[in-house]
Amino acid sequence: MGEPDLPFWKAKSLDQMSRAEWESLCDGCGRCCLVKLEDEDTLEVHYTMASCRYLDVKTCRCSDYANRTTNIPDCRELTPETLGEMTWLPPSCAYRKVAEGRDLSWWHPLVSGSTETVHEAGISVRGKIVSEDLVAEEDLWGAVVRWPVAEGE
């Protein structure tokens, strides 16, 4: 009896994935859409409790995904080629995990079969953030949070 087929994220490299497979790796946590600040002295990146104005804070999905990089010039399109440049992605990010040879967590929709487990596990930003439109730019440093960098939150 042969071994069961491996899921695509274990059987393929990121650059071998189809567009649909690539897109399905996104767990819908919304962490990458948080406004981030860089300390000019240390170059350390800090997450804030403010999200991009296009992030739907209830669904944790971009409200204009197709036009995100046009709407927000700072929005970086995540691709196998750009992934290595995005060192600020949280440790829980499926793209980062697969690139590092780690498996997806139990709460990832591809593992659990439900888009709600990322929220139920407390990984997503749902209920923890506000739109950047509600935070004055001069107040962003006061809105820095630490939780996005933890794997098991």
Describe this structure in words.
There is one protein chain. By secondary structure, the protein is of the alpha+beta class. It has one domain (8-149). Helices cover 18% and strands 13% of the residues. The chain has helices spanning 8-11, 19-24, 68-71, 94-99, 109-112, 117-120, and strands at 34-38, 45-51, 55-56, 61-62, 130-131, 144-145. Strands 1, 2, 5 and 6 form a 4-stranded mixed β-sheet that branches. Strands 3-4 form a two-stranded antiparallel ribbon. 25% of the residues are buried.
Features:
two-stranded antiparallel ribbon; 6 strands; 153 residues; 6 helices; single chain
What's the helix and strand layout?
Layout: H1 8-11, H2 19-24, E1 34-38, E2 45-51, E3 55-56, E4 61-62, H3 68-71, H4 94-99, H5 109-112, H6 117-120, E5 130-131, E6 144-145
- As residue ranges, the low-confidence spans are none
Q: Order of SSEs, N→C?
A: HHEEEEHHHHEE
The largest β sheet comes out as: 4 strands, mixed
Number of domains: 1
> How far from one another are the termini?
39 Å
Number of discrete helical segments: 6
Shape estimate: globular
Counting helices, strands and paired strands, the structural category is alpha+beta
